[in-house]
Backbone:
């Protein structure tokens, strides 16, 4: 308990005694010069009591002159103590300074409205009306000045930590200020980009083998599904959902003399997906009339024809895309390159590519048709 003494001169027509605290609860009891204890349950004639969540006070008409004792008792004071303020009005009725409370701390996303609530502000003068001013970034420029409402929406275009300042003013023009911390978080844009999926390596073998690399640098890959695996053995490595580094899928051809088709669906965490479906075939120039291989129902994106020549390899290769011919001549053993046939591809999924090996019999080449 803390005891304070206040002198009331003889003939004082009026007296007020108030305390204000920050967080804990403090009770105020008064003892008159003649020894009478006064609390909210024992008010003498001409006395009144007022209290709130963080203040308490008494007001007297024609108070007893002499030394009054103020007894302050903390009900839930922390070990480090509690700061409080005492207001004394002995003779007349002066205006007491209001007490600002900015609330907080506050948090929100960049660009979004963050409501600052100064409703905890008080004034020891019963019935005194407060107005509120708000400086969202504590730069000296108040975005709202002397408004009647105790809340205001601040918006911050960038992430970071900011200080908001609140100023309250009473009807007599007295002011008080308080600040609070505002933490603004960056907003991550929605991921609307589909994962990438591309042929990244070929091995002519035998056995012939390709590697398809999938990656999503946005929300990360959630799943890789083999929708089609004809004449191949698929190897999809285990990975944690949300991975943003490359994932390499291997397809190994089973029967080396037949074509093979792979169709992969790659889906990211945000729900975007892409499909890649390379076609793997071995083109052989056998004795007799050249034989053709035709692949129909290809999507427009399948516009890259990779040729990995064997040893002995093909010397000539005709590639017909929707009726348009591409003639590859003077091919060298072990030569590898990619032909872009996108100029002949039509929109949709109904494109046709035909391969025809020509030249000296006995040669072969691994052909991969992909995005």
Residues:
């Amino acid at each position: 308990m803390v005891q304070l003494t206040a002198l009331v001169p003889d003939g004082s027509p009026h007296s007020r005694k108030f305390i204000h605290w920050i967080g804990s609860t403090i009770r105020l009891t008064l003892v008159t010069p003649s020894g009478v204890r006064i609390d909210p349950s024992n008010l003498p004639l001409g006395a009144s009591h007022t209290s709130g969540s963080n203040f308490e006070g008494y007001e007297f008409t024609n108070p007893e002159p002499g030394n009054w004792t103020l007894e302050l008792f903390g009900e839930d004071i922390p070990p480090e103590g509690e700061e409080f303020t005492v207001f004394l009005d002995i003779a007349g009725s002066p205006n007491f300074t209001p007490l600002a409370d900015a609330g907080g701390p506050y948090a929100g996303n960049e660009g979004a409205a963050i409501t600052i609530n100064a409703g905890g502000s008080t004034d020891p003068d019963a019935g005194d009306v407060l107005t509120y001013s708000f400086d969202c970034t504590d730069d000296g420029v108040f975005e709202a000045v002397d408004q009647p409402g105790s809340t205001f929406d601040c918006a911050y275009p960038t992430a970071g930590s900011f200080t908001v300042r609140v100023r309250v003013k009473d009807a007599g023009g007295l002011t008080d200020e308080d600040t609070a911390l505002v933490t603004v978080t960056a907003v991550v844009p929605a991921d609307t980009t589909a994962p990438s999926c591309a042929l990244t390596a070929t091995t002519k073998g035998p056995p012939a083998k390709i590697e398809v690399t999938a990656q999503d640098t946005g929300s990360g890959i959630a799943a890789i599904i083999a929708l089609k695996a004809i004449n191949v053995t698929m190897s999809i490595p285990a990975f944690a959902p949300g991975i943003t580094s490359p994932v390499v899928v291997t397809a190994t051809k089973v029967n080396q003399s037949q074509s093979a088709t792979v169709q992969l669906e790659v889906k990211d965490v945000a729900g975007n997906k892409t499909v890649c479906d390379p076609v793997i075939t071995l083109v052989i120039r056998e004795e007799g009339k050249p034989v053709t291989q035709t692949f129909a129902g290809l999507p427009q994106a399948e516009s890259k024809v990779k040729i990995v020549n064997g040893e002995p390899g093909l010397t000539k290769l005709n590639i017909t895309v929707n009726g348009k011919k591409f003639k590859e001549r003077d091919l060298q053993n072990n030569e590898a390159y990619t032909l872009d046939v996108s100029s002949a591809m039509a929109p949709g999924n109904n494109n046709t590519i035909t391969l025809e090996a020509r030249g000296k019999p006995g040669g072969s080449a691994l052909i991969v048709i992909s995005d």
